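Journal club prep — side note

Before the paper discussion, L.F. wants everyone to see what a predicted structure for a comparable chain looks like in token form. Sequence:
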Amino acid sequence: MSEANKPAAAAGTVRLGDLTVNRLGFGAMRVTGAGIWGDPPDRSAMKRLLRRACELGHNLFDTADSYGPDVSEMLIAEALHPYPEGLVIATKGGFTRPSRHDWTACGRPDHLKRALEGSLRKLKVERIDLYQFHTPDSRVPFAESMGALAELQRAGKIRHLGVSNVSTRELEQALKIAPIVSVQNEYNLQHRKDDPVLAACEKAGIAFIPWYPLGAGSALRAAAVKRVAARRGAKPSQVALAWLLARSPVMLPIPGTGSMAHLEENAAAAALKLGAEDLAELAKG
């Protein structure tokens, strides 16, 4: 199957600096164990799922050192290295995981440098295609964290930089320190408070990567989503993803799953084109 005919390619492409990826990526958070902690019950099954995601045309894989921790990055390398041409691996640093239920922000330059070196080793690469600062740390000046990452980019260890969980003010600050090619914030049908950040990304030509694109399932239970899905003969998850793709040309959803069936369904959402009536109904909720 040619790249253009793969299901996840149906939504077109978006730019990440000098890289071009299909506008429906794959989020690799849920290939780990329960609670995004430890190994999955069946590592072989997750490696098959990762390979299938590639076959379906997902050529941006989003992960982080905190997913597992470390498990997601290592599984990606085990399943896909040496990486197929055109596959972009995006990872993140800035959280620590002291225990299953703890996600502790850590933006100290020394931590970010260690995190990056660890990701290079686990992913088996010499340079990260897209490295994203996972979250601002209230105990560390934002400019100090971003300055450390900009230094690592100048050292040739990062190709492109992104930020995550940021405000418009923080995005403006980051852009003064280094070129930023992506912003990854929570965004879905029922969580749109970052519309100003999305607008800033559109103005600057920066990709917007919505995490929790399905609202951890909550968006799928909305009455409007169910009505549109019934009318279009689609799954509610496909409607929610199609809405995101229609919302902005810089939108780059990364639905994640540990289920092969859901992976196939999500990839098919790239071809679902919502009409004006559908979009109006979804806008009302």
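L.F.'s comment for the group: The chain has one domain: 3-216+249-258. Keep this in mind when we get to the figures.
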